[in-house]
Amino acid sequence: MKARLDGATLGYGAKPVLSGVDFTLNDGERVVLLGPSGAGKSTLLAAIYRQMTKARTRVALVPQDHGLVPQLSVRRNVYMGRLDDHSGIINLGRLIHLPQHVRDGIDAILLPLGLSEFATRPVEALSGGQRQRTALGRALYRGGEVIVADEPVSAVDAVQSRDIMSMIAARFPTALIALHDIDLARLYATRIIGLKDGRVRFDAETKKVSDAQIEALYA
């Protein structure tokens, strides 16, 4: 088991966003969160991410706001996925000059993401979709046991979405991801959790989740 919540109330400050949350993330699961904006998907992702990092699980994160450094290049933003693997002195040096073997490793990540030609371009000069793929590249470069991702394909087209989700599935044995694309959720997830009005409305294997249950989330 990677993470667990028992009857948890989650939120920011004194204001609860989710109440009575029972949740587990088991090894080898690909769990997708569905629900309208404001349902609490990001809140649940953040709580599980904090729990796992506190337990020293190696987690790759793709936040909804990307969390990139605008002035730095795509390549250096991707490198930041492994900052905590090295000392401050090494990281400072590499933010000035990346060794060839490090560049090669990063470029191998950028290629299937369609970002090779933007490797040296500052992130602030990219489109929304390119920034999103850069954030994913950082997570892929970091690697680890689990990925936690908040709408990681919302700014790319349907073909890219499927390719990216395939990359995630191949790289990370366990995943917790918020998505807006229901068809993609059904294709990728082994388990789907539906959130609405601050509550978990269902939590079941993908094949057991009905269209009616999903439609009710957005009604």
Summarize this, please?
By secondary structure, the chain is an alpha/beta fold. It has eight helices and eight strands. The chain is globular and about 50 Å long.
Descriptive notes:
The protein is α/β, with parallel strands linked by helices. The chain folds into two domains: 1-58 and 144-219, P-loop containing nucleotide triphosphate hydrolases (Rossmann fold), CATH 3.40.50; 69-143, no CATH class. The chain has eight helices and eight strands. It has helices at residues 41-54, 74-79, 88-96, 100-110, 128-142, 158-171, 182-188, 211-217; strands at 3-12, 15-25, 30-34, 59-62, 146-150, 174-178, 191-196, 199-205. It has a six-stranded mixed beta sheet, sandwiched between helices. The chain has a two-stranded antiparallel sheet with strand order 1-2. A hairpin with a 2-residue loop joins strand 7 and strand 8 (199-205). Helix 4 packs across helix 5 (128-142). 38% of the residues are buried.
CATH top-level class of the largest domain = Alpha Beta
| Main pleated sheet | 6 strands, mixed
CATH homologous superfamily of the largest domain - what is it?
A: P-loop containing nucleotide triphosphate hydrolases
Largest beta sheet: strand ordering: 4-5-6-3-7-8
Proportion of residues in β-strands: 15-25%
Rounded average pLDDT:
95
Report the end-to-end length measured between terminal Cα atoms.
33 Å
Low-confidence residue ranges: none
Radius of gyration: 18 Å
Decide which structural class fits the backbone: alpha/beta
Give the helix level as a range of percent. 25-40%
CATH architecture assignment of the largest domain: 3-Layer(aba) Sandwich
The count of domains is: 2
- Helix count equals 8
H/E series: EEEHEHHHHEHEHEEH
CATH topological fold name of the largest domain: Rossmann fold
Shape: globular
Q: Would you count the extended β strands for me? A: 8
Pfam families: ABC_tran
Domain ABC transporter: 3-219
Organism: Paracoccus aurantiacus
InterPro entries: AAA+_ATPase, ABC_transporter-like_ATP-bd, P-loop_NTPase
